């Protein structure tokens, strides 16, 4: 029979096990310390490099003007920017809506032969053929009554003979169109 009762007056501790745990904890703490010191030193090096770069940029900005762009090159760049902005502005307008409205406004006795936008983009020149002057007058009135179309002016009109029996009028109208 075996008794598991401890009859000793004081309790016994296993010193070898305690020493092993303490050694493992010390090694872990030393590893963490080395890792933190390495991170701290690399961060300090990065901070000093950034301070040096910032100081160099400040010296260049306030120092010599050797990096200034020549005036001729600057003017050329401005012209290019204006050109590309004009292209972007033209592409941003909804041309199909304008052409659809123009088709709806045009009477059956009028045929539009050309539609020329002006330099500003809002002034238009419309050339066309009509059977008679009443058709031109009707088209002119429709343009004037259309919202977004202003300053309608009949620039010119002239008689034209297509065949011996067919006659008509060539006309040209100028107006300002606000595209939305």
3D structure, described in words:
The structure is a single chain. With 180 residues, the protein is an alpha+beta fold. The protein contains four helices and four strands. It has a four-stranded antiparallel β-sheet with strand order 1-2-4-3, with helices on one face. Strand 3 and strand 4 (167-177) form a beta hairpin. The longest helix has 48 residues, at 15-62.
How many H/I helical runs?
Answer: 4
Secondary structure tally: strands: 4
Evaluate the radius of gyration.
44 Å
Tell me roughly what share of residues is in helical segments. Answer: 40-55%
Secondary-structure content class: alpha+beta
Ends distance: 105 Å
Overall shape: it is: elongated
Biggest sheet details: 4 strands, antiparallel
Quickly describe the structure:
This protein has 180 residues and is α+β, with helices and mostly antiparallel strands. It contains four helices and four strands, in the order αααββαββ.
Key features of this structure:
180 residues; alpha+beta; four-stranded antiparallel β-sheet
Task: Give the arrangement of secondary structure elements.
Layout: H1 15-62, H2 71-92, H3 95-105, E1 110-117, E2 123-130, H4 133-145, E3 149-161, E4 167-177
Antiparallel strand pairs: 1-2, 2-4, 3-4
């Amino acid at each position: 029979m075996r008794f598991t009762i401890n009859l000793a007056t004081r309790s016994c501790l296993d010193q070898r096990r305690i020493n092993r745990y303490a050694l493992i904890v010390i090694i872990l703490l030393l590893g963490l310390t080395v890792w933190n010191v390495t991170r701290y030193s690399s961060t300090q090096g990065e901070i000093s490099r950034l301070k040096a770069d910032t100081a160099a940029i400040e010296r260049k900005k306030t120092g010599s003007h050797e990096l200034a762009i020549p005036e001729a090159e600057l003017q050329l760049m401005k012209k290019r920017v204006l050109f590309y902005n004009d292209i972007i502005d033209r592409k941003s307008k909804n041309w199909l809506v304008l052409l659809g409205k123009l088709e709806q406004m045009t009477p059956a006795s009028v045929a539009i032969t050309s539609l020329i936008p002006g330099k500003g983009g809002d002034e238009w020149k419309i050339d066309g053929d009509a059977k008679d002057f009443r058709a031109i007058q009707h088209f002119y009135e429709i343009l004037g009554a259309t919202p977004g179309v202003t300053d309608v002016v009949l620039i010119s009109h002239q008689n034209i003979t297509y065949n011996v029996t067919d006659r008509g009028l060539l006309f040209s109208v100028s107006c300002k169109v606000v595209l939305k």
